[in-house]
Design brief:
Blueprint: E1 3-14, H1 53-65, E2 77-80, E3 90-93, E4 100-109, E5 112-125, E6 129-132, E7 137-140, E8 147-153, H2 160-176, E9 189-199, E10 209-214, H3 217-236, E11 244-249, E12 254-260, E13 270-271, H4 282-289, H5 296-307, H6 311-319, H7 321-330, H8 337-366, H9 385-396, H10 402-415, H11 419-426, H12 434-447, H13 449-456, H14 462-473, H15 480-492
Parallel strand pairs: 10-11
Antiparallel strand pairs: 1-8, 1-9, 2-3, 2-13, 4-5, 5-8, 6-7, 9-10, 11-12
Helix pairs in contact: 2-3, 5-6, 6-7, 9-10, 12-14, 12-15, 13-14, 14-15
Bound molecules: adenosine-5'-diphosphate, zinc ion (ZN) and magnesium ion (MG).
């Protein structure tokens, strides 16, 4: 019997707000424990939560980016449970009436377009963090009350690799959309993974097994690979699978059971009496639409269509909106957008990467523990964008050979000087003047009658030798294409 996997993901994402969800404490990572707390996020009795409007905006904006419905009414509920990192003994979340529902994420996977439906993306709050030491445990509430978006997919994913591709696409949308920085290292994205298997082609769902609290996409992929294999082995050996929750063990690369369905919590959800329902007004929603970005995949497809870019180039611009913007601002000023894309993707990016590694080395030379400086931005470039257009024109009209153009680019990147200025000063301009080239070719033909004769007798390779001699004579400045044409014409004559 052949089996197929059915996977649905619940992805928790910390929203990029300045303050927490219900209080004015900063939403910030990496501060000393319990320094970003107040009576509200510590869950002390008698305090009142006040919703963070920006968090609600980011939730609805996410709904728009994920093609969701935005219901006219949403509500916050209390989800009751006892755990040391939840001091209120309940988490505020949206249960029955989420702010967004019924959308989808579109992404490319193995050269095909896929759609994973989104059941809902609802707003809730993050909880504190427990630390376990040798003889005691500690709690840090800096994270308690940070706005958290839970994005629940339908079980539309069919493999570990597809889950990885979905998560990558989702993250790209959220980061570029300004919703979340999605910094995995800072725990800004966590995932609950639901997976079942069924006979291939069946339309019934198997017993759902949930792997809780994954904090890396590669971990999700590995856990799924293991778990799918395990479930198939259980069924093949005549066993049965029941709905349960498991834990991924990074070290052993296996999952182990935490609890079965019978032990599942009853959270006793009920509307939070401290919070009014949300009914976003049309004008308010309209004002949000201006913050909606073009989706990365839409941009990729548009750039391919509008400028004739190959998929590979457009893919680079899909994941780097700043680079794409740079490209699109200059594209009207050049004859061949594809050539501009090459310069940006191959040369500009390489120079920026080189500069970045120099900056990292410099920072570490003064302080080995210093955090790596961020990559240099396009705004910090020494040359103005139109200088790149100028350089490309010099290549297009054959003033510069491609190797000379590289040298000019390196110089303008380092100093910010104009390409024409550099070309003139260094005498890099290619010789394309026919009269000058004719003369050089005649000189070479006169000096090498042997190879000329060889070519006439049909030895095509002799042309390259003669061309090389002309290039040498011109100290590399002759336009090689024109030299080839002239030599051929003369030899045929
Ligand atoms: P619950 O109500 O138990 O939380 P939901 O129906 O809301 O379950 O689904 C939670 C997550 O589990 C969703 O991402 C959903 O796509 C996924 N899921 C549900 N049933 C299955 C199944 N049989 N196999 C794999 N994933 C599933
Ligand atoms: Zn607080
Ligand atoms: Mg939840």
């Amino acid at each position: 019997m052949e089996y197929e996997a059915v996977i649905g993901l619940e992805t928790h994402v910390q929203l990029k707000t300045r303050s927490k969800m219900w209080c004015a404490c900063p939403n910030r990572f990496g501060e000393p424990p319990n320094t970003l707390v107040c009576p509200i996020c510590l869950g002390l009795p008698g305090v009142l939560p006040v919703p963070n409007e920006e968090a609600i905006r980011l939730t609805l904006l996410t709904g728009m980016l994920l093609h969701c419905e935005l219901p006219p009414l949403a509500r916050f509920d209390r989800k009751s449970y006892f755990y040391p990192d939840v001091p209120k003994n309940y988490q505020i979340t949206q249960y029955e009436l989420p702010s967004t529902r019924n959308g989808y994420v579109e992404f490319e996977f193995q050269n095909q377009l896929h759609r994973v439906r989104i059941k809902r993306a609802h707003l809730e709050e993050d909880v504190g963090k427990s630390f376990h030491f040798e003889r005691h445990s500690g709690l840090d509430f800096n994270r308690a009350g940070v706005p958290l978006l839970e994005i629940v997919s339908e079980p539309d994913i069919t493999s570990a690799d597809m889950a990885y591709a979905y998560l990558t696409a989702l993250k790209e949308i959220l980061v570029q959309g300004g919703i979340s920085d999605c910094d995995m290292e800072k725990g800004m994205v966590r995932c609950d993974v639901n997976v079942s298997i069924r006979p291939k082609g069946s339309d019934r769902l198997g017993a759902k097994i949930e792997i809780k609290n994954m904090n890396s996409f590669s971990g999700v992929r590995r856990a799924l690979e293991y778990e799918i294999g395990r479930q198939i082995a259980v069924l093949q050996s005549g066993g049965t699978l029941t709905q349960s929750t498991r834990r991924w063990d990074e070290l052993t690369g296996t999952t182990e059971e935490m609890r079965s369905k019978e032990e599942a919590h009853d959270y006793r959800y009920f509307p939070d009496p401290d919070l009014l329902p949300l009914a976003p007004e049309p004008v308010w929603l309209e004002s949000l639409r201006s913050r909606r970005i073009e989706l990365p995949l839409d941009r990729k497809r548009r750039l391919m269509q509008q400028y004739g870019l190959p998929a590979q180039d457009a893919e680079v611009f899909k994941s780097d909106p700043a680079l794409a913007q740079y490209f699109e601002a200059l594209a009207p000023n050049v004859r061949t957008p594809k050539l501009l894309a090459n310069w940006i993707i191959n040369n500009l990016r390489a120079q920026l990467a080189e500069l970045h590694s120099q900056q990292i080395a410099a920072a570490q030379a003064t302080d080995p523990d210093a955090p790596a400086p961020p990559p240099p931005s396009l705004d910090s470039l020494r040359f103005p964008p139109d200088a790149l257009a100028e350089l490309i024109e010099l290549v297009e009209n054959r003033t510069l050979s491609s190797s000379a153009a590289q040298a000019v680019f390196a110089e303008m990147f380092a100093t910010g000087r104009r390409p024409r200025e550099i070309v003139e000063e260094k005498g890099l301009a290619q010789v394309s003047d026919p009269a000058q080239l004719e003369q050089l070719c005649e000189q070479v033909l006169a000096a090498h009658p042997g190879p000329a004769e060889d070519y006439r007798r049909g030895k095509a390779a002799a042309l390259n030798f003669l061309k090389g001699q002309v290039m040498k004579l011109s100290r590399g400045k002759a336009n090689p294409v024109l030299v080839g044409e002239i030599l051929e014409r003369k030899l045929r004559a």
